[in-house]
Amino acid sequence: MFAPVHTLSFGSPGAIVIAPGDVRGTVLIPERCGGYCCGLDGSDGPNLACARCGLAVATRIDDCSLWQAVWFAPDAVRGLPVGASTGTTADWDAQGRPATPPIDPSGAWSAQWAAAVGAGLAHLLAASGGRPVALPDGLMTDLFGRLLDAVLPSGTPAKAVVPAGPGLPARNSDDHIFLVPKNPRTGEPWRAPGIKQSIPLPFDMWRHLVAPGERLLLPATGGLPDGVIRDDPPPMRPWKLFRPDRNVFLYTLARIPEVRQPWLREIYDRVNDRGYAHCF
Asked: Are 124 and 199 in contact (CB under 8 A)?
């Protein structure tokens, strides 16, 4: 931790979290099933025990307003790799992976994109060194531009945000900040020799930014003549300005060593103290 936070977990590091529906072979511990309202909040400690040996192994949380999750105690269980990454190019295969569009069917910005951009903004500010940042036109500017305009100076020389990743080789430059994907299997950022400053984003969102024109064009029933494309509706447009997730931004920035620099700490304190600032 490199900046103050309101709360900090007191649990042991290395806990494994999964969805409650994926848990097998456990039973509830009745005397530890306290909750605030309509479920379990985990305040009584581990509330799941191994059905075979009776050892307390995990804490289930499913109270209202809380994410439903089961946290396994790292001193009670150990994780075994299943289908681990092989380090091959197949790990980056996009086939069969559903894309996450930035606009929900309701016309609102996706909460997943708000969270990912909140984390990406923290890394982007740290990589900028306080210098102006030049963004490519389009969705990238819609997502990152307003906050950068509010907290960074304008003018030149500016650091340019450049996409890099599978099929997009990176050319090292001190004036470049590389937009890289996270491995869809391991979550690790894409790395290449010479990349020093990068902004990691989930793979499907990275792909949407670097290849915004890729749309699945399907022929109508019975097929269409060669050269004729179905008249699909245009992509949805949002009904309000994009706001990155403020909490994810602060959470990420507090864990980046560069936040100790006075100029970046001032930004952290400003966003933290002002609550929902206009950019968030």
From this structure: yes
What does the alpha-carbon distance between residue 219 and residue 214 come to, in Å, rounded to a whole number?
Answer: 16
pLDDT lower than 70: segments of the chain: 83-91, 93-99, 212-225, 227-236, 275-278
Looking at residue 219, the DSSP 8-state letter turns out to be P
Contact 204, 219 (CB under 8 A): no
Is the C-alpha dihedral spanning 142, 260, 183, 244 positive or negative? negative
Q: How far is CA 234 from CA 64, 90, 102, 154, 226, in A?
A: 38, 32, 14, 34, 22
Q: Going by C-beta distance under 8 Å and a sequence separation of 6 or more, which residues neighbour residue 216?
A: none
Instruction: Locate 83 and state its tokens.
Output: 């289908």
- Cα separation of 173 and 158, whole Å? 12
pLDDT at residue 216, rounded to an integer: 45
For the whole model, what pTM was predicted?
0.77
d(CA 201, CA 43): 33
- The CA R_g of the chain, rounded to the nearest whole Å, is 22
